[in-house]
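Folding follows sequence. Below is one example:
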Amino acid sequence: MKRNVRFVLLLMKLKLSRMMMFRVSFFGAFIADGTMFIIQLLAFEAIYSQVDAIGGWNRGQMIIFVGTFAVVNALNMLIYFFGVNDIPEKIKRGDLDGYITKPVSPLLRVTFENVNPGSVPLLIFSAGIVCYGVSAAGINISFMTGLLYVLLVLLMTLLWYDMELILRSIPFLVLSANGIVQLEEQLIEMNFKIPGILYKGGFKVVFYFILPYGIMSTTPTQMLSGLLTASGFLHAVVITAFFTAFAIGFWRYGLRHYKSTGS
C-alpha cells in the first residue's frame, strides 16, 4: 500500500510539472466546465421564475443538485477521467503491453497517471455553488449531515469511475466501444438536467439500478435537504459496492483476454 501511495504521488507530481509548462491549459477544465454549470444554473433560474417547485424541490435544492453534480464531475476530472478515458486507445494501439510488464498494478497506473490538478479551481467553484444552494434553500446543516453528504459525494465519484471503467473495458472484447461512450455522454448530460426524483417506473429502474446515473447527484442532494431515507442511503452504498466489484472483475476479465495489437 505504501509503495502504491508513493507511486500515485509521483504520478501527480510529474503531471503537475508538465501542466505548469503550459499554464493557460492549467485552467482549461475550470473555464470549460465552469461555463457549462453556470449556463445550467441560469436555465433553472429561468424555470423557477415561473414555478415554485419541480418534483417537490425548491430553487435552492435544485442549485444544490447542480452544485453536487459539478463537485462529482470536478473530482472525476481531477482524479481519474483523463487516465481511464484513454483505455480504449491503449487497447487498440497495444500500449497496455508496457503496463502489464511493470511491477505496478496496470489499473492503478491507468487510473492515476493523468490526474488533472487544473480541476482544483473547478472543485472550489462547484463547492461554492453547493454552499449558495444551501443558503438559498434556507437549510441548517448539522456536522453529521455534512459528513454524510461528503461521504455520499465520494461514493458517487467512485460509482462514476466504475461506470467509466466498465464501458471503456468493453474494447477488450470488441473492436470499438465508441458508440457506447457517446451514449454515456448523452446519459450523463440528461441526468445532469433531470433530477432522479422525477424518474418513475421503468426509467427509475434503469437510472437507479442498471445505469445508476440518476442517483449520482440526487442522493447527496437529498441528504443535504433532509429528504434521504435510510433505505435510500443503503441503496447508494449497495449500488456503489456492486458496481465497484463488477468493474474490477470486468477489467481483470478483459485483461486476461487482451491481445496486443501494437507493433
User: Anything to note?
Assistant: The radius of gyration is 19 Å. Residues 2-256 form one domain. Residues 31 and 56 are 32 Å apart (CA to CA). DSSP finds 14 helices and no strands in the chain.
